[in-house]
Amino acid sequence: xxxxxxxxxxxxxxxxxxxxxxxxxxxxxxxxxxxxxxxxxxxxxxxxxxxxxxxxxxxxxxxxxxxxxxxxxxxxxxxxxxxxxxxxxxxxxxxxxxxxxxxxxxxxxxxxxxxxxxxxxxxxxxxxxxxxxxxxxxxxxxxxxxxxxxxxxxxxxxxxxxxxxxxxxxxxxxxxxxxxxxxxxxxxxxxxxxxxxxxxxxxxxxxxxxxxxxxxxxxxxxxxxxxxxxxxxxxxxxxxxxxxxxxxxxxxxxxxxxxxxxxxxxxxxxxxxxxxxxxxxxxxxxxxxxxxxxxxxxxxxxxxxxxxxxxxxxxxxxxxxxxxxxxxxxxxxx
Amino acid sequence: xxxxxxxxxxxxxxxxxxxxxxxxxxxxxxxxxxxxxxxxxxxxxxxxxxxxxxxxxxxxxxxxxxxxxxxxxxxxxxxxxxxxxxxxxxxxxxxxxxxxxxxxxxxxxxxxxxxxxxxxxxxxxxxxxxxxxxxxxxxxxxxxxxxxxxxxxxxxxxxxxxxxxxxxxxxxxxxxxxxxxxxxxxxxxxxxxxxxxxxxxxxxxxxxxxxxxxxxxxxxxxxxxxxxxxxxxxxxxxxxxxxxxxxxxxxxxxxxxxxxxxxxxxxxxxxxxxxxxxxxxxxxxxxxxxxxxxxxxxxxxxxxxxxxxxxxxxxxxxxxxxxxxxxxxxxxxxxxxxxxxxxxxxxxxxxxxxxx
Lengths: 334, 356
Description:
heterodimer; A: 2 domains; 4-stranded antiparallel sheet; 13 strands; B: MetI-like fold; ABC_transporter-like_ATP-bd (chain A); P-loop_NTPase (chain A); ATP-binding (chain A)
């Protein structure tokens, strides 16, 4: 599959000097064209920092201390997003990569109509577009996300939470970006609405062909909707595999812990188990594998050596990688 | 503990670099002290201000001459004997500037303190209690807002023929609190509806505790910059009064020097040393206070405070400022970045514009 976004050795820190907190460590991740990549992990595992880091949206004192984010446009040569000038970065955003933020439905300005806010983006990125075609585009976008176009002149408070969320998704897609990053876009909604919106997103993706990085701590949601899942812990990716593979046969004890913390709808009953302990303090990470203090299977090398993300030595280990001493890796992936 | 690199390399051949050992960090980062001084503006401003305070204390004791003493060196340019030259009566300008520092600093800080205390009490009370209290206190500060301080002081000091510096400081302090009180009232109005204030009210905290422990820390920056602003205003008021000859009886200050320089037409005589030192002294004091004010503004944001500084150097040697929306990249990748162009057909017009 053709890659659209390649993250190489990305490091993100908060603060400067020796007091800096490394929130994302040596992350390697590839997003393929038309794929939904799920990013899961506990609060504070670096999911959102990774997403904001690769778009350079981190607020101070966030600093990207190393790595590359290679973007492959539909036409033309790939380039490094981290090397773009401010002006080019401004033009790159939204047109190539769009973000739907955490709690996005509160991001709408309450004093402007939906139509104004939708067409504002078009005005900024394509000043020559006529007002008529801008409005037509906004209507089309609303229809795409399942809102009747006669709601164009509604104010945000006249829409329900789910509708506002759809408007935000429509707004993110209005310039037809290649990559859409969704940072827990449905956490504030009820499960029925979550399903509906995600179903629609998948449908849209099939029609428009963009790729999605979907960030959530709800692994069950990812298992259902994403093609691949990457699991983060303590700022690193600890396991990455196709969604069904992770669900059936997770290798990392942390992924297993996450998976056994929600019930399956069908199949035999199994015991629900949480993960004991709490996420690591990023300012004072344990030595070796950062998960070893909480890991039920920790053994001798875990506390001293950091496992490297690589292809596991197992029969079906073609398209997956894991960072765990239980599964010796052959070669690095990524 | 640290891990020897060699053992890592043994476990996974060829990946020693990727699995670079990480030294165990101490559990808690040490609390950094004097962070405020890391800000260059703050450090510079405080050093200058410190010098002024020092001269305000020791100035009158270290003057080489009695600032009032006449001599035969009339209107002499700066020399080894008279560093800043002499006046038309042969008085030493350097001694006058040194001697004049104390009243300026004294009046500035006393008036600033009085005005700040008043504005905090009145502003926060009005904003937090609301209702009739607010109406009354707001009306009061509105009245004080329109009282012209300098004409009032001219009147008062001309009635009392020997106005002391203490009295001048009191008058400036008592008339200049209203603007800060209004600012604090507005800020308090916005803060008192925040969830954490409502929560502390719901848990039954006493009003004085809510104001002292929940509200005041949030207002520190506003109060501090209000204080600095009032000090600047008080210094300038005192110098204005002295310059127009109202308080000349109260001893030397920089305004008095300027008053005599103006009266004796120092500029026309070409006696620049007569007024330049006092003018520079005023300018530097104002600069120092403004620098501290700017530094306080920057220090307000706890995010920036924790970073200590907001400017940082990239690998290529340039300096980047941290700002929202454009995270700085300190790239340490050995090979240069791929700097290919976006294909023009795939770009929106703005993107095309940006890459030109």
